Amino acid sequence: MAELATVARPYAEALFRVAQAGKESTSLAAWAELVSELAQIGTHPEVQAFARNPKASDSDVAATISSLVKSPLNQEAKNFLSMLVENGRISLLPEIGAQFQLLKNSVEGAADADITSAFELSAAQVADLVATLEKKFNRKLNPVVTVDASLIGGVRVVVGDEVLDTSVRAKLQQMRVALVS
Questions:
Q1: pLDDT at 181
Q2: Contacts by 135-141 with C-beta closer than 8 Å and gap 24+?
Q3: To 10 degrees, the CA torsion angle through 24, 35, 145, 168?
Q4: What's the predicted TM-score (pTM) here?
Q5: DSSP β-bridge partners for residue 142
Q6: pLDDT higher than 90, residue 26
Q7: Over 70: is that where the pLDDT of 157 sits?
Q8: Are 85 and 62 in contact (CB under 8 A)?
Q9: Among candidates 97, 100, 77, which has minimal Cα distance to 22?
């Protein structure tokens, strides 16, 4: 999907510049929430099919998507949405959302951390784990925790392109490779 990323990047960067230059009443966090909502809306096949429908006018598509957004749309967001519809780029919303989040994290010195655990973690365990991981990765982390019983035990952490896999499944795979060699 490198092509989607290449096409979506200028839209995300432009929207990010608008968000940074925006009024204090519309903070970067509010923009991030709005862009996240738009990205979620853009993932639905029904929305994409409606946007591609030649019988639906651009204003109908923009109005429909606007009505699906819970956050209030300011004029800049309405203009952005209208521009995407006019250019047939609604399918880029999920990628624009992902790149916007990366830009926001970069400015804040943070990163998203996908933490997969073999068992459900308590809030205290997650907090301790995140504190340890923040020291290791030298940045603030925004954790997203999921459970995958196939790990057998331990955790698997993905931060950007770095992977820290301390799961039992990974250790068993390493042992298997060592024994087969």
A1: 82
A2: 136/164, 137/111, 137/113, 137/162, 139/109, 139/110, 139/111, 140/108, 140/109, 140/110, 140/111, 141/110, 141/111, 141/112, 141/113
A3: -130
A4: 0.79
A5: 112
A6: no
A7: yes
A8: yes
A9: 77
